[in-house]
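lol ok so funny story. i was supposed to be doing the assay writeup but got distracted and ended up predicting the structure for this chain instead. priorities right. anyway since i did it might as well share w the group, maybe its usefull for someone
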Amino acid sequence: MKKYLFLLFVLIPGLALALEKGEGQPVPKMNFYGVDFTLVKTFGVKEELVTETKKYPYGNFFAKYVREIDQSAELKKIQFSAFDNVNIDEAIYRARIMNEAGMPTYNKAFKIDDDALVALIKSFNTGKDTGYGVIYVAELLNKEDGIGNFIAVCFNVRTKRIVFADRVSAKAGGFGLRNYWASPLEKFFKL
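and the output, tada:
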């Protein structure tokens, strides 16, 4: 009888550990946090910026970034195909309280430096979310050239470590201020 109890105490924890590391491990959640305008600079923009959260198929992120997801040691062998959670409240809050007076720049080549991007992600409130997060960080809205520059960022929600970041840009266009600057995002999300 003691042999059986000993085997249970040795085998059950070992089996549980093996299942944690194997195929039985649940897929981590993937969260979408919208577009953050905290660090954006504008070149030649005189109007105030307005936010809207509808219309854009952000789920195409996975199709666009398959290579980066596959090459990441942290995300390797995890198959993501859709977001489990969409929480744009923090991005909307930050857009409402940001100081637009600091947005204009005379530097058409402005880029957010790596340290500022890391600090932004570390400060981003993800609440009780788990898994990984995706956010687009607005970098430069260039009215003269009609280009919107953004950084697509994938990060570990718990540690706030950036898994990968990719600079993307597209031509702005459309009627109205909102559509004009949102159209680059629409182009990123289309394949």
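Residues 1-22, 50-54 have pLDDT under 50 and may be disordered. The beta strands are 30-36, 41-43, 85-86, 132-142, 147-156, 162-171.
back to the writeup now i swear
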